[in-house]
Structures are given as C-alpha cells and as structure tokens.
Recover the amino acids of this structure.
C-alpha cells in the first residue's frame, strides 16, 4: 500500500508527506539526502546551486536588518547583520546563530538555515553576522596577551550580549572559518551561554588543543556540541594540527563532538571548505532536534509492548537538550502511528491520528490526506472496515485533480468495499 502522490504543482505545493512516508513528490525524495546527517550529501557547489534556486523561488526568505552598537572597546560604532526566519515570533523560543566573518559567511549560512526551515528541520531562529575591520588583529590576541583581554572578545562577551536577540535565545551556536573558527572555539570554551560551535578549518595551535582537552573533561561538554573540520586539501599548518588533535580524541567517548576530515573530496580546499562544512556542522549540532524521534524506532520495534506517549516523550527530551519544542512534523506522526499499529496498540495509534488530523485541518492539504489515510489504516488493521472506508474516502475526496496518480489511492477504497461486500454475502448465506 505504499504510495506516492505525483503532483504537477510547484515544489512548494509538493512539500507534503504521506502514508507510510511515501506521499512525497520526487523533489522531496531527492532533497531528503541533504538533510540526513552523515548520509547522502550533495556536492557542495551543487548544494549552493539548489539553495539559489530555492531563494529565487522565494519559498522562504529571512527577514534582514542591521543593529549598530556603540562600542567602548573599539571606540567606534560596530554594525551587525540580523536575519530572522520567516514569521519569526519573539514571544516563542528560538535558536541563535552568531556568525563570524560576516562578510563571507553570513549570507551562505543563512541560506542553509532557510533551507532547513523549509523542511521544518529547525525551529525559528535568529542569525547575527559579526564583521571585523581587521580580522588579523581582532581575531587573535597580541603577543603576551590573553584572548580574554582582546577587544573583540570583550565586544562579543559584553556588547553583543546586550542585544535582546542574544539574551533571550534558548540555544546558541557560533560559526567561524579559519581565524574566526579558532576564535569561535576559544570563545565557546570560555562562555557558558553557547551550546554549539561550528569551526571550519581552525588553526589548532597547542593552546587551543589544551583548551579543547579541558573542555572535554568539563561538565559543559555533556550538554553542548562541537564540530571541527579540516581536509587533505586544507592549508598544511591547519590540517597538521587538526590531525594531531583528532588522533588524541576518542569520539566514542563523546558523541557530541565531531572532528570531520575531508579526504579526496572535491571543493574542500581551505577557501571552499565552508560550502560543505557549514551545512555538515549545523546538521551535526541539530541532529538530535530533527532526528531524535526516529532514533531508536528499530529497537522499539523489537519490543513486545510499548509505553504510551512515545512521541511526546521524545519531544520532551529535545526540549531538555535545546530548550526548544519541535513544531509539528509529519514524519514523526507517521513513524509512531505505524509503530503502534505494528504492536496492535490501536488506542495509542488512534490518539496520535486524531491529534494529527486536528493539526493538519488548518495546514497543508497533503498532510491532511496523509492523516486521514493513517486513520483509515489504523481502523483497517483493527478490522473495523466500515470506519476504515470512511476515512479512506475522506482522504481521497480532497486529493487535488492535478495529482497524476489519484486513481491509485482509489484502490484502497475499492479493496475495503470488496471486503465489506464479501462479508455481507457471507452473512446472507448463513
């Protein structure tokens, strides 16, 4: 009964999910590879092209603004770029991304965030791009000076912190490349307010390696995420220190840290590495947010009995990690309804289906189609064929005419009608 709706609509209209995870347009299926951490990934430049296509279609656009800070540490004004996700609501929890090297990293990082927003893989967000007038002098301390004493460090710690967007964020992540990646790591290790860092090709000098070891033995590493990367096409100085650090790090002891090394991959030179690494880093840091509900499904499938409210419990765990509650996500309802059906826990399957229907009545029509079909499937597995037929008909009745394989979904109705007809004949014969 696996099906796929084939619509003629734009990719915006094709953003739907369906019965048994198969009510998807071909674009959705292809794009899924991009958002699965450590699975299929598009070539970096191809991903850029896809983002540009999406941006051109105006599917999701960040709301941009600028804030000027009167800086005492620089004795001048500093302007930072602000981008918020579409429909941003400051009264709700959100995540914050502070992006260093604003002039080169901000627009691309926001494009990645926009793409993830399209598929509801991340909650609403604020991105702040922080520029430097001279990155060589501002992103590293003077000789015999601690990074804590550097004006840019103090600017980040005190003056940037004064922005309400920063103060009120539930989960904060730093993003940097090269020198700004090294600074991001040092700031992250010393600042308890940040829970994630994406450091692309950082020069991991011995001092940074020591700070990294201290971090690994601290309590902070239990509730935060570190992504660092380099590659065989990186600058020799950077990759040498990176490989040395990775050699001394046991990833099995800390799943919240990923040191990724790009080997024999195109477009991973020092200057091009952010194309691939930023998306990988963000996906790694946010992996539990968009994948936690599906993690453990295979293990749960092997159990004889399942506790109730598994979906709600997984969302509660996400909130504990990120301080954020996921928005409605079709795939989570699909996975857990099917899991409960497989264990004949129809009461819980119906409860989730009813909640799914309530949510989708005001949302995407394709999600509502899926909700009706899951409800029908639950009744069918329960052998309540009359109720199953009712919901299959409800789902079929709202499928748009431009769905090319609409008649495929009529087969469910025909099959149930035949079962009911045969049942009536058997009763008459008796």
């Amino acid at each position: 009964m696996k099906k796929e709706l084939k619509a003629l609509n734009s990719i915006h209209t094709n953003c739907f999910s369906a019965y048994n995870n198969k009510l998807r347009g071909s674009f959705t299926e292809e794009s899924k590879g991009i958002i699965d951490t450590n699975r299929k990934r598009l070539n970096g430049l191809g991903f850029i092209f896809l983002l540009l296509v999406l941006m051109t279609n105006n599917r999701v656009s960040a709301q941009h603004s600028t804030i000027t800070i009167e800086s005492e540490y620089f004795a001048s004004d500093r302007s930072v770029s602000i981008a918020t996700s579409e429909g941003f609501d400051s009264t709700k929890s959100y995540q914050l991304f502070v992006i260093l090297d604003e002039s080169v990293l901000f627009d691309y990082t926001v494009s990645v965030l926009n793409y993830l927003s399209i598929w509801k893989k991340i909650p609403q967000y604020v991105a702040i791009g922080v520029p430097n007038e001279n990155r060589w002098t501002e992103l590293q301390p003077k000789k015999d000076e601690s990074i804590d004493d550097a004006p840019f460090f103090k600017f980040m710690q005190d003056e940037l912190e004064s922005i309400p967007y920063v103060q009120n964020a539930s989960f904060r992540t730093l993003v940097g490349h090269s020198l700004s990646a090294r600074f991001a790591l040092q700031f992250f290790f010393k600042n308890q307010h940040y829970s994630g860092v994406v450091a692309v090709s950082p020069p991991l000098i011995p001092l940074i390696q020591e700070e990294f070891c201290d971090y690994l033995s601290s309590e902070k590493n239990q509730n935060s995420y570190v992504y660092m990367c380099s590659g065989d096409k990186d600058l020799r100085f950077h990759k040498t220190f990176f490989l040395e650090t990775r050699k001394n790090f046991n990833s099995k002891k800390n799943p919240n840290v990923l040191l990724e090394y790009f080997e024999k991959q195109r477009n991973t030179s020092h200057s091009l590495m952010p194309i691939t690494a930023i998306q990988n880093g963000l996906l790694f840091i946010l992996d539990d947010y968009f994948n936690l509900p599906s993690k453990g499904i295979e293990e749960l499938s092997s159990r004889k009995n399942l506790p109730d409210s598994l979906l709600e419990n997984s969302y509660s765990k996400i909130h504990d990690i990120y301080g954020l509650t996921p928005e409605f996500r079709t795939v989570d309802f699909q996975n857990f309804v099917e899991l409960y059906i497989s264990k004949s826990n129809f009461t819980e399957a119906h409860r989730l289906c009813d909640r799914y229907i309530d949510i989708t009545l005001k949302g995407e029509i394709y999600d509502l189609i899926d909700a009706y079909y899951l409800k029908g499937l639950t009744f069918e597995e329960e052998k309540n064929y009359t109720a199953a037929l009712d919901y299959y008909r409800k789902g079929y009745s709202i499928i748009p005419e431009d769905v090319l394989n609409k008649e495929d979904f009529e087969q469910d109705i025909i099959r149930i009608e035949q079962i009911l007809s045969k049942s009536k004949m058997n009763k008459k014969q008796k």
